[in-house]
Amino acid sequence: MSNSWRLARACALCLVIVMAGSLRGGQNAEKGPPNARAAAVIDLTGYWVSIVDEDWRWRMMTPAKGDYASVPLNAEGERVADAWAPAKDEAEGNQCKAYGAAAIMRIPERLHISWLNDNTLEMDTDAGMQTRLFHFDGSKWQGGAPRWQGDSVAAWERQFQTRGNPPRFGGPLPGKGGDLRVFTTHMRPGYLRKNGVPYSGNAELTEYYDRFDFKGSAYLIVTSFVKDPQYLTQVFVTSSQFRREPDASKWNPTPCRPLWPLAARVSSGKN
Predict the structure, then answer these.
(1) Which long-range contacts (CB under 8 A, 24 or more apart) does 51-59 make?
(2) Average pLDDT of span 39-54
(3) How many domains does the chain have?
(4) Predicted pLDDT of residue 7
(5) Are residues 12 and 121 in the same domain?
(6) Domain carrying residue 169
(7) Is pTM beyond 0.85 here?
């Protein structure tokens, strides 16, 4: 056997070994963490309380009928909002129309977030006693009538930060950090605000959940995008803040409330 043949054979053998190692490494990389809980880039579990530092007049009480300032309603949306009849909602058992997925994060409330199983994150609200399920395995409840909280598919989005503040100044550890993205459809028609500002059953909700830790406290920021061509001229964007609480001592579930007393007087014309 010539030296050139031996050299070619040795090179071919090395190439096979390298390729086999690459394939094994690729297969291992594809497997990744076994489930969404293990793959979590941030910890969202625990009890959280709303921080209402904006839109006070629209969040802490039911606004007056016809007050839909800052919501990009089209003509049909305005018509529906102007026709709001709170007594009709209550008579029809629709007290929860302002507690659907597209609006629930704007309600002053407490959240309890926990893992229902390894691939499903559960969020309960004390206001309205609503439950949202975020499915990481791509599955979602399908069929039957739409629900207030709709169907949600979730995914972790990892942040690979190489610049910016180091961990001691609030930045994430290298290779750590990110957010949770949730996409929700199949919702019952509801209200973006308690005074009848509508979203339709065809609305789509995209949310991003970010956690920040500062001076011993954890904060949750939820940025929401509501797309609804039936009632909106453009995407409706809001940002809601929460602070983590140490335990469940202040957890106080209450059913959906259609009206605050002040709103009842305003909407009925009584002073």
Answers:
(1) 51/219, 51/241, 51/242, 51/243, 52/108, 53/241, 55/106, 55/238, 58/106, 58/193, 59/106, 59/107, 59/108
(2) 96
(3) 2
(4) 46
(5) no
(6) 38-268
(7) no
